[in-house]
Amino acid sequence: MNEITLELLRYLPGLLQTLGWALVLWAWWSMKRIFVRQEECEICRAGFDGRIEALAAQQRDSEAAKKALEQALKSLPTSQDMQILALSLKEIEGDIKGLAQKVNGQARATERMEKAVDLLTEVHMGNKG
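Request: output the structure for the sequence above.
Response:
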């Protein structure tokens, strides 16, 4: 072996040691970036649990509102109920028109009776005086 090779072999253990430490430091730095400390994980988990609880509360509220809306829709009249109501209103309208005609007829009869009573009153008053 020549002299240059022997000189390089003398520095090889130091070079390998430096390279080894560099590799260990790089691995440690990489692991620190990949993994999280337990305290940091607990803090993150607490925030995450709070968000999950808030979402669960929103979902419960939405479910309650949905059930209330379904109950309100069930209590509304159906189209068949509305048709029955419309027919009943038409019948009532006809009955009211008939009653109005009877009242008008009674009003005319009452006017004629008033005239007759007025005439009788005049005649009766005229005989006394």
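The longest helix spans residues 79-128.
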